[in-house]
Amino acid sequence: MTKNFSQTAAFIWSVADLLRGDFKQSQYGRIILPFTLLRRLECVLADTKAAVVAESERIAEKGLPEEAQEKFIIRASKRPFYNTSPMDLSKMGQSDIKDNLNTYVQSFSKDAREIFEHFKFEEFVGQLADANLLYKVVRMFATTDLSPEKISNHEMGFVFEELIRRFAESSNETAGEHFTPRDIVRLTTSLVFMEDDDALTKDGIIRTIYDPTAGTGGFLSSGMEYVLELNPDAVMRTYGQELNPESYASVKLIC
């Protein structure tokens, strides 16, 4: 697993080679992180994409309120988020790529769109287009496999943390401001839950995990993982708060 996520993070960060000269080092992460999130979302939604697009077209003719439409589409998506566009990163084209990409992002459900708003994604898309780099960056991410079959949510958390670490280094920041090392997270999680191991194995268990300083979601995902290892049928609900917009966007996708 370590080799897998390290190689994936290193490959993704190699996009910085394209950005060098046109963007400051401190801006690399603000471009690479949202594109990584976009590609991950795209891969996660791939198996129900056709059904979502068809359902979106079907209910559009009925003139239902947006909230009602969303319920139908989420049912087709089988996930709490969706994208109603028939496009993906591999179909952006070159001549109209800026408009196509912005339209594609706006086709996500509200919660997913919010992720890109936190990154000021549209602003950086414009800057990439002005530098004639947008097509190259999109093509690079379009060929990166971030599907759940290849990289689990837990592993994806490692990828984001590695990217954030590199981002922090390039910005002369401290990565610890955004996340806690996973070995410490795992130890802390074990200490919190170990007294309840017997109770957590019982039927009908429902647990809520809250982290008021969520960072990239390490404690939330580790807590879920710990409980589900003891009881795969447990119902887990996670809640968190985070001041840093980039970290918040990352944890929102993972948890």
Description:
With 255 residues, the protein is mostly helical. The protein folds into two domains: 2-170; 178-254, Vaccinia Virus protein VP39 (Rossmann fold), CATH 3.40.50.150. It contains 14 helices and two strands. The chain has helices at 2-13, 16-19, 25-45, 49-60, 66-77, 97-106, 110-118, 121-130, 134-142, 153-170, 182-193, 197-200, 218-230, 245-254, and strands at 206-211, 235-240. Strands 1-2 form a two-stranded parallel sheet. Helix 13 (218-230) links the parallel strand 1 (206-211) and strand 2. The protein starts with a helix and ends with a helix.
Notable characteristics:
Rossmann fold; about 260 residues; mainly alpha; 2 domains; two-stranded parallel ribbon; globular; about 5% strand
In a nutshell, what does this entry contain?
The chain is globular.
Write the layout of secondary structure elements.
Layout: H1 2-13, H2 16-19, H3 25-45, H4 49-60, H5 66-77, H6 97-106, H7 110-118, H8 121-130, H9 134-142, H10 153-170, H11 182-193, H12 197-200, E1 206-211, H13 218-230, E2 235-240, H14 245-254
Parallel strand pairs: 1-2
Helix pairs in contact: 1-10, 3-10, 4-5, 6-8, 7-14, 10-14, 11-13
